[in-house]
Design goal:
This protein is of the alpha+beta class. The chain has 5 helices and 15 strands. It has helices spanning 2-16, 97-110, 151-157, 183-188, 231-237, and strands at residues 59-64, 67-75, 81-84, 88-91, 119-125, 130-135, 141-144, 168-172, 178-182, 202-205, 210-215, 221-224, 245-254, 257-259, 273-278. A 5-stranded mixed sheet has the order 7-6-10-8-9. A hairpin with a 3-residue loop joins β3 and β4 (88-91). It is rod-shaped. The chain starts with a helix and ends with a strand. Residues 1-24 form the signal peptide. Residues 47-123 form the Polysaccharide export protein N-terminal domain. Keywords: Signal.
Amino acid sequence: MNDAIKAASLLVVMMFGSTMVAHAQAAPAAPQPMPVASAPQAFSSVPTDDAYVLGTGDVITAEVLGRAEFKTQVQIQADGTLQLPFLGTVKAADMSVLQFRETIKNSLKKGGYYADPIVNVTVVNYASRYVIVLGDVGRPGMVPVDRNYRVSEILALVGGPRDSGSDFIMLRRTTGEEIQLDIRKLATGTLDQDPFVKPGDKLFVPKAETFYIYGQIARPGTLKIDTGMDLRRAIAAAGGLTTMGSEKKVKVIRDGKEIKKFPLSEPIKNGDVINVGERFF
């Protein structure tokens, strides 16, 4: 007889929802969700990946589609657990978003709360496994790391460097170690020139240093200084001399002072002004 009642109740749930079963079977009262502790401010340009592994301090929202009674935002506590409606204390740390979503779904089905719930889990604040990308990039912010990512992959996820960005990126480890990486070699160099990032790492693309060039030059104006750029490369970057220009008539002004006889092999510095004069016939 009891089996028949349970089967009938389950059929009603599937057809009309859990509210119609309330008269036949009282559902446990949903506990009030625990207040969310203050979590680090976070911004992510990258949608939550189902493979992201949850950890202590992460803040998530969990909900059952179409069920207002099961919708909560909660932080994973130091012991790796969190509080959910109906289910109470549930372990979440060290589980992927996909695994945790399935855990909630199966627990709700096993407890008889819903027949076949559609569960959604979203990470609101990443506080355990992420890297921070700052500087002159498309979308600076915090990027969750659910697997081993190389610097080039993280840079691509945030939209890459802006046109005004430098040609190198700084990688700062949690140990304090700083590594300067050539952005072009991230794609064309060896694997050690595109290292893996680790949770807690910071990436920074500085704004490019610039110089100003005018006179008998093909494209006068303000240009970026590439790593190791000397006067010869600066002239080439500006399109080269005009037919009236002369390398012997090039002047470099640095910090308001003219540097006489500036060698073509000498490095250019931020803020330098280059004047290309006319040749004498």
